[in-house]
Amino acid sequence: MRCPYCRFADSRVVDSREVDEGQTIRRRRSCPECGKRFTTVEEATLAVIKRSGVTEPFRRDKVVAGVRKACQGRPFDDDALALLAQKVEDAVRATGVAEVESGDVGLAILGPLRALDEVAYLRFASVYRGFDSLTDFEAEISALRASPGRHPYAGHAVDKHGGAYDPAPSTPARARVSTP
Ligand SMILES: [Zn+2]
């Protein structure tokens, strides 16, 4: 690594530590030419391919922004959402690919969101899956009841509207669902 102060072509690592549960490595470096120290950050890249074809770095805050509306008024705080985003990132990284489609990020949200809160899950799923009738909700609720603790789309990367990492803001996320 080139020294940012004197542009000397080499530097020496004097300290190296893992942060963010090992997903990032910070190295403290020293320049043998000018003696100054600087820090470099190393992180494996994870790119999200949007439906437009544009790729952008995966960001947990985008996951949080994507589920926030579905979580309005639900009894948990921002820390729970931060933890959810971390689980989503872990799940995506665990697939071992360097690039994921935004729809697959949405899919990876479903499981942890259901574990967090079934109402928020149902709201998010209604947008992500493009529910357009009560029948869709009834089918989803039946699936929820039939498989407690496991979301019904595990292993199915199919969704009829092409996947929404960030559900369209024009689509109402609220759903009034009455249960017998
Ligand atoms: Zn230097």
Structure description:
The protein is of the alpha+beta class. It has helices spanning 60-68, 78-94, 102-116, 118-128, 134-146, and strands at residues 12-19, 24-30, 37-43, 47-49, 55-57, 99-101. The strands form two sheets. Strands 1-2-3 form a three-stranded antiparallel beta sheet, with no helix packed on it. It has a three-stranded mixed beta sheet with strand order 5-4-6. Helix 3 (102-116) packs antiparallel against helix 4. It is elongated, with a radius of gyration of 21 Å. The N and C termini lie far apart (65 Å). The relative contact order is 0.12. Zinc ion binds at residues 3, 5-6, 8, 31, 33-34, 36.
Offer a concise description of the structure.
The chain is of the alpha+beta class.
Features:
180 residues; 3-stranded antiparallel sheet; binds zinc ion; disordered C terminus; 36% helix; alpha+beta
Uncertain runs with pLDDT below 50, 5 residues or more? 151-164, 166-180
What percentage of residues falls in helices of 4 or more residues?
A: 25-40%
Number of β-strand runs: 6
What binds here, in terms of ligands, is: zinc ion
Strand order of the largest sheet: 1-2-3
The overall pLDDT average reads: 83
Helix-strand sequence: EEEEEHHEHHH
Indicate the structural class: alpha+beta
Largest sheet: 3 strands, antiparallel
Count of helical regions: 5
Q: Outline, from the CA principal axes? A: elongated
Beta-strand fraction estimate? 15-25%
Q: Report how far the terminal alpha carbons are from each other.
A: 65 Å
Radius of gyration: 21 Å
Task: Set out the fold topology.
Blueprint: E1 12-19, E2 24-30, E3 37-43, E4 47-49, E5 55-57, H1 60-68, H2 78-94, E6 99-101, H3 102-116, H4 118-128, H5 134-146
Parallel strand pairs: 4-6
Antiparallel strand pairs: 1-2, 2-3, 4-5
Helix pairs in contact: 1-2, 2-3, 3-4
The chain binds zinc ion.
